[in-house]
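User: Fold this one for me? It's DUF2931 family protein.
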Amino acid sequence: MCHWLLAFSLSLLLAGCATGANKLPYDAWFLGFGTPNYMEVWIETADAVDIRDRVFHRAMGGIASTQSPKDLQKEPAGWPERPGGGAGKHVRGADLPRLLYVRWQSLVEPQTYEAYIAIPEATREAMLKGERTFCSFDGKWITGYRETLTVGLAPGGIAKVWLMGPCLHPIEVTRVEGKVVKLGPSGGQTEGRYALPLEPESKAYIEKYGIPFGSW
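Assistant: Here's what I get for DUF2931 family protein.
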């Protein structure tokens, strides 16, 4: 009898470890950030609120993923059909996301924006749904989960969100127009100075072609 109880208790413990404290089918979901080509961004803070109303301050901060090719031939207008996961972090200990708050410096303008991004219930349902899919890079079938929220940040305060997972097609979640932060970069504590100078390639592109506002 004792052996049966021990085995049963161990099975429960292993099940809890497999699904995590929040009963997700993976250890943590990933929050990533990217930009159109050349449109560099510094994230002051990205905070997440889960469905239990727990706040995860600075779930991400720093440089968003940006490509700035030296030949200046990569058109930044519009979004790719399959965006990358972006630069980011796993939001460990969180349940499914309900709300994101992002405050960022658009270095090419320059301007500081903030946006509140509500995550729909349909997105959370999709984050729990496993799908049988084929991974072409290693030739294997897997059960994949969309456990990555990627936020694209563009000039004009645009924030667009996709839900993605390994070997699964991305799902568009929402598009939000952020507001200008009147205090400027870093809450007005840097006398208007932005976090980073533009990379030479980004600076050259903007000087030659400008910013394609309205394309995102």
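One thing worth pointing out: The radius of gyration is 20 Å.
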